[in-house]
Amino acid sequence: MIKVDLHSHSTISDGLMTPSALVSHAAAQGVQVLALTDHDAVSGIDEARAAALEHNITLIAGTEISVTWRNRTLHILGLRIDPEHPVLLQGLTRVRDSRAGRAQSIANELDKIGIQNSLEGARQHASEGIIGRTHFARFLIANGHAKDMKTVFKRYLVKGKPGYVPHLWASLEEALSWILAAGGSPVIAHPGRYDLGRTLINELLSEFKQLGGVGLEVVSGSHHPDQYGQYAELARQYGLLASRGSDYHGPGHSYMSMKSLPDLPSQCQPVWHDWEEVLARAA
């Protein structure tokens, strides 16, 4: 079966590898189809596409848009987008610009508990200038405030903890409209991370489908194996296609390697089932 990974990050957002190095790594892991899905950005796609030609990988242009829905932060993947579409670019620029104010607010909160210079420290881990919680987390680990990513988020950067700052991202409707305008396929990323009960997940999937959403990330580096079947069934119920992605950020910063990403459950219809470039690889 063809090896597809539709969720990965480079140094353009919060990954540890440049776009070209990420593609090289994916090739070494046996990946044949890779989507670069940096947070709220598409500027690494040209570099990744050039590297993909060199390594005989089919590159899928993508992004991962931060969304506020019912006072929760969700992530929506846009796959097979036109990375130069003006509607998408304007929307992503707006979301990125809002990150600067959020970063300052996070630093202010950390200042209150005696952790100084966190904004400058986070910037040192953000080579492309887009600062997110992951960059603060790397600063906190490097300065001995936590031993690893899981611990640092649990201790500092989630709701109710020092360093957590609520933020208003794009709306679900806005994010989907940008992706669809750019010819892309909207997919809900790692639904298992959002701590949604049965009622809310059903309401989310219903609204997502009505707004033009097409896919649900069933197999994710952020999911436990026993969740694959759960989200496969939800995808079936709502007529959504299934996606798979490692959510790879780099060595030591990811829940799963690209190589160990499992196949989709057999009952799923893959989001790539009719993508010509993927069908050509499988032929």
What do you see in this structure?
- The structure is a single chain.
- With 283 residues, the chain is α/β, with parallel strands linked by helices.
- It has two domains: 4-85 and 170-282, TIM Barrel; 93-157, Orthogonal Bundle (DNA polymerase, domain 1).
- 41% of the residues lie in helices and 15% in strands.
- The protein contains ten helices and eight strands.
- The protein has helices at residues 19-28, 45-55, 86-112, 118-124, 133-142, 149-157, 172-181, 198-210, 225-237, 276-282, and strands spanning 4-5, 33-36, 58-69, 72-79, 170-171, 185-188, 215-220, 241-245.
- Strands 1, 2, 3, 4, 5, 6, 7 and 8 form an eight-stranded mixed sheet that branches.
- Helix 1 links the parallel strand 1 and strand 2.
Short description:
41% of the residues lie in helices and 15% in strands. With 283 residues, it is of the alpha/beta class.
What labels describe this entry?
TIM Barrel, 2 domains, 283 residues, 8-stranded mixed β-sheet, 10 helices, alpha/beta, DNA polymerase, domain 1
How many DSSP E strands? 8
User: How do the helices and strands follow one another from N- to C-terminus?
Assistant: EHEHEEHHHHEHEHEHEH
How would a textbook summarize the main sheet?
A: 8 strands, mixed
CATH class placement of the largest domain: Alpha Beta
Unreliable residue stretches? none
Q: Helical element count?
A: 10
CATH superfamily of the largest domain: Metal-dependent hydrolases
Global Rg: 18 Å
Q: What structural class results from the helix and strand content? A: alpha/beta
Task: Please identify, by name, the CATH architecture of the largest domain.
Answer: Alpha-Beta Barrel
Shape: globular
What is the share of helical residues?
40-55%
CATH third-tier fold name of the largest domain? TIM Barrel
